[in-house]
Amino acid sequence: MFDSRTDNLTAEHIMASGSLPPMFPWTTIDGRHYWDGGIISNSPLEHVLNRSGADNKQVFVVNLFPGERPLPTNLSEVFTRRDEIIYGERVRNDSQTLELTQDFRALVNEIMTTVAPEEAARLRQRPRYVHLMGRESTTSIVTIARDGSAKEPFAAHYDFSVQAVSRQQREGYLTAQRCLASLTPRAEDADA
Known about the structure:
The chain is mainly alpha-helical. The protein is 49% helix and 10% strand. It has seven helices and four strands, in the order H-E-E-H-E-H-H-H-E-H-H. A two-stranded antiparallel sheet has the order 1-2. Strands 3-4 form a two-stranded parallel sheet. Strand 1 (27-29) and strand 2 (32-34) form a beta hairpin.
C-alpha cells in the first residue's frame, strides 16, 4: 500500500493501482514490481480499522463487485466471477474480523465485572489492556454493493470506456442513495 504521508507519489504509483492482471502488466517503481493492491485487499477497510481506532465511527465501504450474478456459462465467465468473489471477499472478511473483535471486547468487559474492583482498576491500567481494549467505542460498517445486472457482461470491470465508466457512476450513485435512504430514519419513524 502506498501512503502519501510517507511515499513521494508519482504517476507510476497511479499506474500501479491500475495494473490489474492479466489485462495489464505490473508497474515497476524503484526496482520493485507492483500489481493492483486489490489482489490482496480491494478496500482500505483493514487499514482504517487498524490505524484510526473505533471512536464510534461509521465507515462506508463501496464494493465495486456485485455480490450476486447469473451463473457463468463459459470458462472466461468463470474466471471473471472468481475474480469478483476474491476482490469482494476481503471486505466481508474485514467486517467479520471487526465483529469478532467487538465480541471479544464485550466478553472481556463481562469478565471484568466479576473481578474485584481494585484488581479490575489495576488490570485496566496495563499497557496491553489499554492497547487492545482502548476506549468504549464501536465502529459500524456499511457496505454499499452494486447489484449485478443480468445484462452486464462478465469482465465489465475491465471496461474503462467513457460509456462504461458513466454507467458505473450512475449505477453506483443510485445504489448509494438507496443504501443511505435505508439508514436514515424517516420523519414519521422519529415521531413514533
